[in-house]
Amino acid sequence: MELRTAASPKDMKHYTTQRLREEFLIQDLFLPGQIRMVYSHVDRIITGGAVPVHPLKLTAGVELCAEYFLQRREMGVINVGGPGTITVDGKEYQTGYKEGMYIGMGAKGIAFASMDAEEPAKFYIISAPAHKTYPTVLIKPEGTTEEGVVIVKDKNKVEMGALEDANHRVICKYILPGQVESCQLVMGMTKLAPGSVWNTMPCHTHDRRMEVYLYFEMPEDAIVMHYMGEPDETRHIVMRNEEAVISPSWSIHAGCGTRAYTFIWGMVGENQAFDDMDNVEMKDLQ
User: Fold this and answer.
1) pTM of the prediction?
2) Binding of Zn(2+): at which residues (predicted)?
């Protein structure tokens, strides 16, 4: 587990490109046979990836000073690879591509496996501190109702933007109040339509929570210019397939790609209201 400290917007104004990448960019999340974690002091979020070419068990590590990983935490997981399984305290959940899970505080035994080691699962993980236990559930974007499975509600699949503005996209909300309850974690996925490249513009901040983006479904030669920083002091990070970026609450978070892509967003903080945003007018961006 890699540790990263919080960054001040005053300091960020003086960062070089390399320093900006060191502080906020997360690379090499999906390494075969490994669980890779980055612990950020920004709202104590943990961003991780697990690629089980053989079964992998999640442990707390010395960094958490806990008996087990979710002793004082909750977790959201979305599979961006081949079919796999997540076992929680002896119960096995089969998870296909873009299917997810919420795992509540107190779950002790967590293990990841792939159906086929030649096409391994890639489990993307977001974890936040928790104060209460909520039910562990499997989340599917679509499908028929099954016992113990949450299907994303139609109202939580939101089509936004327009091709004329290069931001036609569908937002699919996985973890949020009224569908999958959590202490503070909100998580979902946004897919851009062919021909669209902006994930959000006009952009926004939200002082009451921070956010992490994972960009994926990008060809090897594609990039996303991820914009961050204070609205009048913007910076950018060049990002590639299956890379993540940390966005503090004071920072905008918007990306423009060389072609359409998909990204997973995960937010933690004191407010779970998806629409609680401090919108930034285009004229105020610098």
Assistant:
1) 0.96
2) 204, 206, 211, 253
